[in-house]
Design a protein that fits this description.
The longest helix is centred in the N-terminal third of the chain and has 25 residues. A hairpin with a 2-residue loop joins strand 1 and strand 2. The radius of gyration is 21 Å and the shape is globular. Helix 2 crosses helix 4. The chain has about 300 residues and is an alpha+beta fold.
């Protein structure tokens, strides 16, 4: 409905209001109590539609070409490549980072009318809400996140879901516990801050110690890149998840570890490669983890 009031040539606004057809029009969320489930989910969808549109126009595809057999796969491959190079949701992440560092942030459970500032309300509802959805893909895997959205629509369209309803759907589809994610991300302003602490050789293996300096625990993707161009992904689930996401990139070998307990500040992973074979170590190469300090997330070595 808001699209009828657009009075300027803003493509982003048009896409945003179009996505409101789902959030909140199909899933009738109470925006006074859960504005981020409306504006945030819509902002997340808007970014994907914008990326799709830009890929479409860049390649100058006609509607007939788009309808050609096999074209959809070409489009999706182009989108995947574009998203691998730049996070489509980077603007939302920037908005959240600015909010977290502003000293004005309030929990997303705050009633819309009761925020102390319009800034805190808007960034929580739009930016932190969109980041919630993209970061959920980091936690459970993008394929599982997309299935969650389809199931959420199936169960809750023409109804009035709240945050617990969404989390219950997400837990059932992903086969993980996610109440901790709701508690930390929605009900508090605690932030995420992991880093690479140290590397050393021991017993013919290279060991890498990670450190958690933040107040919000998360699972960790740690990617190692070697001189020969190969890579390894070391995946450390977070204890409160009571589960683990499946490997997302079959081209990169994935090593799954025991869960990192949220009470422990450090965790050590290891590889059979020599330390001098490693040229890069990076936490969260996809940059979907909403880290407030990424300066110690990547270490590059020039041997």
């Amino acid at each position: 409905p808001m699209a009828t009031l657009i009075n300027g040539p803003s493509l982003g606004t048009a896409f945003h209001e179009w996505m409101h057809s789902w959030y909140q029009m199909m899933m009738g969320t109470n925006e006074s109590e859960y504005p981020w489930m409306d504006e945030g989910f819509t902002t997340w969808a808007e970014a994907l539609v914008t990326q799709y549109y830009q890929t479409f126009t860049k390649n100058k595809w006609t509607l007939e070409e788009m309808a050609a057999p096999g074209r959809l796969k070409t489009v999706m491959d182009s989108l995947a490549l574009a998203n691998a190079k730049t996070n489509a949701h980077s603007e939302a992440y920037r908005g959240y980072f600015n909010l977290a560092k502003s000293g004005l942030e309030e929990p997303m459970s705050t009633h819309s009318d009761h925020y102390e500032t319009n800034y805190a309300y808007s960034q929580a509802a739009y930016s932190k809400g969109a980041t919630f959805m993209e970061q959920l893909g980091y936690i459970v895997g993008e394929n599982a996140r997309d299935k969650i959205l389809l199931e959420y629509y199936r169960l809750w369209h023409f109804k009035h879901p709240n945050v617990n309803d969404f989390i219950q759907v997400a837990e059932k589809v992903s086969n993980m516990k996610l109440d901790w994610y709701r508690e930390y991300w929605v009900n508090t302003t605690k932030t995420i801050d992991y880093g690479i602490d140290s590397l050393w050789e021991e017993g013919g293996k290279t060991k890498i110690r990670l450190i958690n300096r933040g107040k919000m625990p998360m699972p960790i993707d740690l990617q190692l890149t070697f001189k020969n161009g190969s890579k390894e992904l070391h995946y450390v689930p977070m204890y409160l998840m009571f589960g683990a996401k499946p490997p997302e990139d079959p081209a990169i070998p994935t090593i799954v570890y025991d869960a990192w307990k949220w009470t422990q500040s450090t965790y050590t992973v290891e590889t059979t490669h020599r330390i001098t074979d490693i040229i890069a170590v990076e936490i969260d190469p996809s940059q979907r983890l909403a880290e407030i300090n990424r300066r110690d997330n990547k270490l590059e070595m020039k041997w």
